Amino acid sequence: MHLITALFSAAGLLPLALAGADVSASSNIAVYWGQNSYDQSSGPLEQQRLSYYCANSELDIIPLAFLITISNPELNFANAGNNCTAISGSNLFYCPQLEADIAECQSTYGKTILLSIGGATYSEGGFSSSSAAVTAANNIWSIFGPAGSDSSIPRPFGTSVVDGFDFDFESTVSNMPAFGNQLRSLMNADTSKTYYLSAAPQCPYPDAADGPMLDDSVSFDFVWVQFYNNYCGLQSYVEGSSTQNNFDFNTWDTWAKETSANKNVKVFLGIPANQGAAGSGYESGSTLANIITYSKTFSSFGGVMMWDMSQLWANSGFLDAVSADLGGSSSKREASKTTLRRAKRATA
């Protein structure tokens, strides 16, 4: 147990600033980690280990990208995979560094850690039947959910357990609602902690890949819409106009309230974290601030999602600016300091 974890335990406190995702808040920040997309092979801008980023108080949710195949599970974490070793009899690898970092991110820094499934290279196309999807979901849960008694199950993260799953499919997939609903059922049955389910559709509605899951089928907690690489992206926002013709956050707000299986689902503004980070659609400064202000007028708004961590760290000041635009920067830092002071007093 880390010292800070022991302090919180002794004090009987849940650190407000370190509680990770808040489904009722509109200032959450989610950033994908795992792909080293800034593409540095060395130096400070190379993708660092997960715990390095978790120490930042402005981050709330970190999806790990990606589980690139499902039926015969395989992970790809770019350079982070160099610290892993192959698990015999599977396409998976064991990552002791990630096992330690996931636990530290959750217990010490209170981050919500999701495993993102899919990505641009995912090519399985889903499942041949609903029963095959359910079987696959059970297998994924046994590998990344709470460890069971079967020692033959490969465990890439060892004893660490993710806080849920993210679906990031870029092309049409079959029988995915059955997969998502089974994962939701398994998560709901485990009352040891709160689990989350998220999706990352592109902004044209309905989304070609995730549409069947989003159409009153799977109960999601968060949907971070990719407002880039499409006509409905950030660049289509018309400043000062109460009616947006192409920038369609209002469409997704309507989906959240009228169509979603979970009428309390939060919709995130998905943005590139750097120029060219995710193709087209990067905005910053007052333009982005105005887009966030507009998006916050919708009650379903839950915060901002960024692609990705390596791009964000290469874009000095961008995280602080987004956090300030959301109204969460100073409050998160002050709450974090207050919690630490209370914990120290409790053990004095």
TrEMBL record:
Catalytic activity of the protein: Random endo-hydrolysis of N-acetyl-beta-D-glucosaminide (1->4)-beta-linkages in chitin and chitodextrins
Biased composition (Basic residues): 339-348
Molecular function, one GO term: chitin binding
Source organism, top-level taxon: Eukaryota
Signal peptide from the UniProt entry: 1-19
The EC number(s) this enzyme carries: 3.2.1.14
GO cellular component, one term: extracellular region
Location of the region described as Disordered in the Swiss-Prot/TrEMBL record: 327-348
Pfam families noted in UniProt: Glyco_hydro_18
Record keywords: Carbohydrate metabolism, Chitin degradation, Chitin-binding, Glycosidase, Hydrolase, Polysaccharide degradation, Signal
Gene Ontology process terms (BP): chitin catabolic process; polysaccharide catabolic process
Residue span, GH18 domain: 27-329
PROSITE patterns xrefs: GH18_1, GH18_2
InterPro entries membership: Cts1-like, GH, Glyco_hydro18_cat, Glyco_hydro_18_chit_AS, Glycosyl_Hydrlase18_Chitinase
Family membership: Belongs to the glycosyl hydrolase 18 family. Chitinase class III subfamily.
Official protein name in the record: chitinase
